[in-house]
Amino acid sequence: MTQADPAGPSWITAAVRALPPYKGPTQLADFPSGSRIHALHLNECPYPPSPRVVAAIAAAAGQINRYPDIPARALAAALAARTGVPPSCIVFGTGSDELIHLICEVALRGGDRVVVPAPTFPRYAMSGRILGAEVTRVRIEAAGANDAAGLVAAIDGRTRVVFCCTPNPPSGGMMDAAALERLARGTPDDVLLAVDEAYYEFGRHAGGPDAAEVLRSRRGAWVVLRTFSKAYGLAALRVGYALCGSEEVAGALRKIKLQYNVTSLGQVAALAALSDEAHLRTTLDNTARERQRLADGMTRLGLKPLPSAANFVSAEAPMAASSCMTELQKRRVLIRDWRDPDYPNHIRVTVGLPDDTDAVIAALGGVLAARAAPLQARA
Ligand SMILES: Cc1ncc(COP(=O)(O)O)c(C=O)c1O
User: Fold this and answer.
1) Beta-strand (E) ranges in the chain?
2) Ligand 1, closest atom to CA 240?
3) Residue 53 neighbours by CB distance under 10 Å
4) How far is the CA of 121 from the centre of ligand 1 (A)?
5) Could you tell me the distance, in angstroms and rounded to a whole number, from the CA of residue 358 to the centre of ligand 1?
6) How much distance in Å is there from the Cα of 368 to the middle of ligand 1?
7) pTM higher than 0.70, yes or no?
8) 21-62 pLDDT, tens per residue?
9) Candidates 97, 123, 201: which one to mutate for ligand 1, based on the most atoms within 8 Å of Cβ?
10) What domains appear along the chain, each with residue ranges and CATH number?
């Protein structure tokens, strides 16, 4: 380069140069060790994993000199038995995060379009942009679920992938089987339909459908994404999986994924987590109870929480969500704004332990009262 290029060096693709600098979320490691912080901003599971998981990791720790089993055979067989999807159509990722990116890599090039709900998990749009695709945003329904008809209507001749997420963060709304069916039927066969069910276990507990079951009758390409990061509490181990509608879809993902992406400790931990149904049931029951307490607490503060089938609750605050977040952080409570210009006042709070619920409601009450006081004094 003879002249300084303000947009960055030419070895960085234009799509990557156009992205804003990386700014991750606040993490517990940002605080002095030992400080009690209520981390309700990442939709993590507040409960430790099943003791079977801890034992399985300990038992496998002595063999980590060997590379992991590439197809994760034992885990794939266990998931196949539960889902009816054959092991040849199950592909694992370093979290479902990675699988989202792989889907974009196999399907998207410059000039293509990807349809995504808005707001939703930001990774779909981010990966689409990195691959040079244009992102078409489809507003979620007022109650917070993805809009099947809207997603179908947004598909055009350049669309290669449609992402859908149910239950959807940050809103919490869930599609019913009929809506998923409309989406499956309305998406052309040569467009890959990717349904992200990161919050699947919570959604089922709340009476929701199984997207893989619904999509089974679709002729065209489809994939359903799930993860061990949420209800199973294995976020740090990074194990996600794709249930693919055909060997063609699974084969494409397998061709490009990094060979040893899921560790052996992740594989044994996920297998052990699947075996402890009582532990999962307790997590889901506790989450449903605390979700209700959280929503009730928000209602008492004058907010209108959106119906949620996941491990978080959202509501519109009477102030900028970013200020609400900052004020709560001063009170040692971490929550998240919706990060969407169309919803500047919406906040999302992860369902935590009972004392997290008490802490966030008390702190939120304090923030809202402090904001109301000068307004009342002026009136
Ligand atoms: C909708 C959705 N999809 C995918 C993920 C990524 O999960 P992981 O990469 O931990 O499996 C998340 C994490 O918050 C999510 O909310």
Assistant:
1) 38-39, 90-94, 113-118, 134-139, 159-165, 192-196, 222-227, 239-244, 312-316, 333-334, 336-337, 346-350
2) 11
3) 26
4) 7
5) 26
6) 30
7) yes
8) 999 999 888 898 888 999 999 999 999 999 999 999 999 999
9) 97
10) 14-48+278-378 (3.90.1150.10), 51-275 (3.40.640.10)
